[in-house]
Amino acid sequence: MGGREHVRVAVIGSGFGGLGAAVRLRREGITDFVVLERADSVGGTWRDNSYPGCACDVPSHLYSFSFAPNPDWPRTFSGQPAIRAYLEHVADTFGLRPHVRLNSEVRMMRWDADRLRWEIETAAGELTADVVVSATGPLSDPKMPEIPGLAAFPGKVFHSARWDHDYDLRGKRVAMIGTGASAIQIVPAIAPDVRRLTLFQRTPPWVMPRTDRAISGAERWLHRQLPFTRAARRGLLWGIRELQVSAFTKRPNQLGLIESLAKANMARSIKDPELLAKLTPSYRIGCKRILLSSEYYPALARPNVDLVASGLQEIRGNTLVAADGTETEADAIVFGTGFHVTDMPIADRVVGAEGRTLADHWKDGMQSLRGATAAGFPNWMTIIGPNTGLGNSSMILMIESQLNYMADYLRQLSVLGGPVALAARPSAVNRWNRQVQTRMERTVWNTGGCTSWYLDAQGRNTTVWPGTTGEFRKETRSVDLSEYEVIRLREDRPERVPAGAGNAEGAA
Question: Do residues 315 and 150 make contact, with C-beta atoms less than 8 angstroms apart?
Fold first, then answer.
């Protein structure tokens, strides 16, 4: 980048959150911004996750921006190549390429209290920004477990999010570690080609059929020619999922019928009583994310596929030893062990007003104001922040709500005028999080009897939003200045404006 460039807004990441922020900035008339991307192309998690069978478990017409509808989705549940192509299309259509800085991984961000701006160090140089919008996402950094003997394993090892396409799995003995959303797509995709596939399962997932099909040419033509049909399809998909929310958040006992359907789905493919018992969860459906696949159970019934109902404990040469003592020989290990969700690595690289990192600030659990801003970090906000995840609908809906909040945040700064910053009040952050955690107490994610990646090290759910997407949109429609301190420069020094004065300025 050369020199000490200054921009109004620096966006971190170029997945759905980052590109969505860039589009919204341009629509708000802000063109003085950059999108800092660590890789050599845009796409975020849909660029990084290219494993066999990779697809979305949210219907295509709901898993897209409302301002960038796609009438030509090829399938009702689109695969990774189509979603990545969609994001590339968004970057081109909305003129985002000039703003994107590739190969520019952020190494550190520090708040400069004397100048009310962020100092940003990247792999391509340094710059400063008035506002930082972090859109790195929770599914960006793979989590690899510490397994004794892993470093000495003589075969191939990689994570599902860093798939080695140069390594040919055909004819190999492959161990798949984990039974999350990635694993249930990978297993049926590679099972026909490998010599033997051993799946290590700590906890069985609940799996429902995925009603995926090709979208016909007639349907696509109709959506192109009559846009209201496309909007109606999206609205129907959204409405059905909104109606489901109360069962997850208020009345988990209502999920018993869904459990019965899931068990029937399992029994259709799995005839071995012993295998069926291993695959039947002991927790309430919905406590972990409900997975969608019509190929997973049939793949497990194949003669060359084994299920070890125990976690991987140790590796001795080519031998993988499970916690129950089961030993398996393998030529390759694929880890489908998820991501750093409740301990986002970007937090180690953000230093706020008190000289503390965001990771240190969040050491007892992530918390933010309306999923966007954190106390002690002025003019910094995140897209897909704490408690903005969903268990049954499209994250794009939540992203767009947070973009509304981001846009109003920037409008408030413009109204206030001059070098100015907004800092979330600790009291406001605490009040918001108390409300969220109180609502969380009744949800299936807290009462369903499982341990999921939604929970942090303290067992607190800092990931999921305990309500509808409509509720969240209402809560993030605009910035309430009473929840912020207004920081101005006075005689080259920052001055915190009292709450009353700050509110008066915001209303002027």
Answer: yes
Contacts of 2 (CB under 8 A, 6+ apart): 125
Query: At 407, which CATH number?
Result: 3.50.50.60
Tens digits of residue pLDDT in 465-482: 999 999 999 999 999 999
Residue 191 CB partners (closer than 8 Å, separation 6+): 197, 299, 302, 304, 305
pLDDT of residue 497: 62
Which are the contacts of 143, defined by CB distance < 8 A and separation ≥ 6?
337, 338, 339, 340
Among residues 314, 335, 356, which one ends one of the domains?
335
212 within 8 A of 76, measured Cβ to Cβ: yes
196 and 171 Cβ atoms separated by less than 8 Å? no
Note whether 343 and 359 are within 8 A (CB).
Answer: yes
Burial of 472 (0-12, 13-18, 19+ CB in 10 A): buried
Q: How far apart are CA 55 and CA 99, in angstroms?
A: 28
Cα 207 to chain centroid, rounded: 20
Query: In the structure, what pLDDT confidence band is assigned to residue 41 with cuts at 50, 70 and 90?
Result: very high
This model's pTM is above 0.85? yes
Q: Look at residue 351 and tell me if it is in a domain.
A: yes
Q: How far apart are the first and last CA of the chain?
A: 39
- CA dihedral 295→297→299→304, nearest 10 degrees, is 180
**65 Cβ contact list (under 8 Å, min separation 6):** 16, 20, 23, 90, 396, 400
Neighbour tally for 466: CB within 10 Å: 24
Rounded to 10 degrees, the C-alpha dihedral 21/24/30/33 comes to 20
Domain range for residue 494?
A: 4-141+340-507
Half-sphere exposure of 226 (CA within 13 A, CB side): 7
Give the C-alpha separation, 462 to 493, whole Å.
Answer: 36
Cα gap 313→351, rounded to integer Å: 37
Instruction: Render pLDDT for 198-243 as a digit per residue (tens, 0 to 9).
Output: 999 999 999 999 999 999 999 999 999 999 999 999 999 999 999 9
Q: Are residues 318 and 368 in the same domain?
A: no
Q: Identify whether 271 is part of a domain.
A: yes
